[in-house]
Amino acid sequence: xxxxxxxxxxxxxxxxxxxxxxxxxxxxxxxxxxxxxxxxxxxxxxxxxxxxxxxxxxxxxxxxxxxxxxxxxxxxxxxxxxxxxxxxxxxxxxxxxxxxxxxxxxxxxxxxxxxxxxxxxxxxxxxxxxxxxxxxxxxxxxxxxxxxxxxxxxxxxxxxxxxxxxxxxxxxxxxxxxxxxxxxxxxxxxxxxxxxxxxxxxxxxxxxxxxxxxxxxxxxxxxxxxxxxxxxxxxxxxxxxxxxxxxxxxxxxxxxxxxxxxxxxxxxxxxxxxxxxxxxxxxxxxxxxxxxxxxxxxxxxxxxxxxxxxxxxxxxxxxxxxxxxxxxxxxxxxxxxxxxxxxxxxxxxxxxxxxxxxxxxxxxxxxxxxxxxxxxxxxxxxxxxxxxxxxxxxxxxxxxxxxxxxxxxxxxxxxxxxxxxxxxxxxxxxxxxxxxxxxxxxxxxxxxxxxxxxxxxxxxxxxxxxxxxxxxxxxxxxxxxxxxxxxxxxxxxxxxxxxxxxxxxxxxxxxxxxxxxxxxxxxxxxxxxxxxxxxxxxxxxx
Amino acid sequence: xxxxxxxxxxxxxxxxxxxxxxxxxxxxxxxxxxxxxxxxxxxxxxxxxxxxxxxxxxxxxxxxxxxxxxxxxxxxxxxxxxxxxxxxxxxxxxxxx
Lengths: 542, 97
What we know:
The complex is a heterodimer of chains A (542) and B (97).
Chain A: H1 18-22, H2 27-55, H3 66-101, H4 110-129, H5 148-151, H6 156-183, H7 196-228, H8 241-275, H9 282-295, H10 311-339, H11 348-371, H12 373-379, H13 383-413, E1 415-416, H14 419-446, H15 460-490, E2 492-493, H16 533-541
Antiparallel strand pairs in A: 1-2
Helix pairs in contact in A: 2-3, 2-4, 2-15, 3-6, 3-7, 3-8, 3-13, 4-6, 6-7, 7-8, 7-9, 8-9, 8-10, 8-11, 8-13, 9-10, 10-11, 11-13, 11-14, 13-14, 14-15
Chain B: H1 12-33, H2 42-62, H3 70-96
Helix pairs in contact in B: 1-2
């Protein structure tokens, strides 16, 4: 990070000291603040997951009691959802690359951006405080379902307030990105000149802005019920628990798209670069991001098929759910079509991308199984659902995030990692992931319910396979992370454009200068993925 | 200077009329709910209709949507449409349960 040979000051060198980081207004530094915080919480979440798998290696009590298991999976869920997946891609890579990709020097509201990070830290601190005060962390599951969440003595109020504050952080990031994209694009960049990662962030930001307030209010209603005894969700005092589920999922289903859409944006960046050709169906992919965001608002009821919701409502939500598959499939088809006859370079980011396509397809198609009303009645609340969402969230977003980290690492730090170790780490991670989560589909179909620390003896074999998978996955993670840390400390200097990308971030130096661009960026009129020699010559000459 | 960046000065008369109309609509809401205008199942619908009208008035006049380009009006329209769909889908559960 100390490359001064090109006689420019990069954003690492601009200022020194802890204050220059925690009070920075530079979008790139804020992105890295998010990266370090989010990855730390991710590792805590992974550790909790490993402990849960260890408990499940044999029937009966193994390493923890039932209540502690309930608290562990709740904290695992809260950390992974609110502290890792939701902020991961938008807050880290969105913050770092959105302004650069649209040719501007920062987001529209830099102070608001910093406030978002501080709110994130405040929310995270509150979530972790539940560990050490009162009756310990909530034992409700990350969904905080009423009426149990109203009645339990564990730290639900504090956990709910943590989620409330984290929601504000998410709203402010979304607001910032929407205004940035509308107002700060470099003059020659029209809407359909924007990279697809930017389109994905735009769609995501609308969900953050419009859906998150619903969960904010809902969580406050739980606090009102717990503290003041207002009868909102508890039937014993005149409330309706299904109303809670409606309000919760009105946010939390669109939130799934906050998690997956930016990841899809990453895939749309890596594939054309690795295939060295323009992306197939640019407009279809861009509009499908908006379509997923829009249709995603209307499908929340599929989480409630067995909750006592009315028959007609269940049928309507099941039909609407199938609509989401259309824009998702459009993306998958276009990504694979882009690879067809491309000059493919099998680099580490592409490996993560291919794993994403495979695992997201498994997760997406099993999503249709749970979205089908008749099938869901049988497999609801079984391990099948756990397998499904981990394939989408970790197999999809998690792998895309690691793909992005390997893709943009040389740009962010100006250094290159050991590619052989990165590929070995990826392979072990990929194997570990599938050994860990695929058995859950089998267990679910066999009828094993989720969220129990104990199970019947006939489920033992597949649980043991899954637990061994968690150890393989952890090994892969350790290799990947150590390799990146080594590259950060003593990696070789990376070229400005190691993968041959054509979006604007590859026109700036590595690490980027403080204000991103020394001159007006050159935007191709033929779209953001213009791999023509003519465009490359233009950039060289500039 | 772009069309939406042109300065506009709203007359006192327009601001005051907007304010008065909002006060009248608020009085109507209170009349429906508190003073026993017994509209039975139409009570909720009436209250929602009045609230929607107020939101439109605030957005159009006070928040200056009337001066903004069509894209912003469209975006606000989509947001309101989303809210309406939320309500309809949730009511579908309650009516048929």
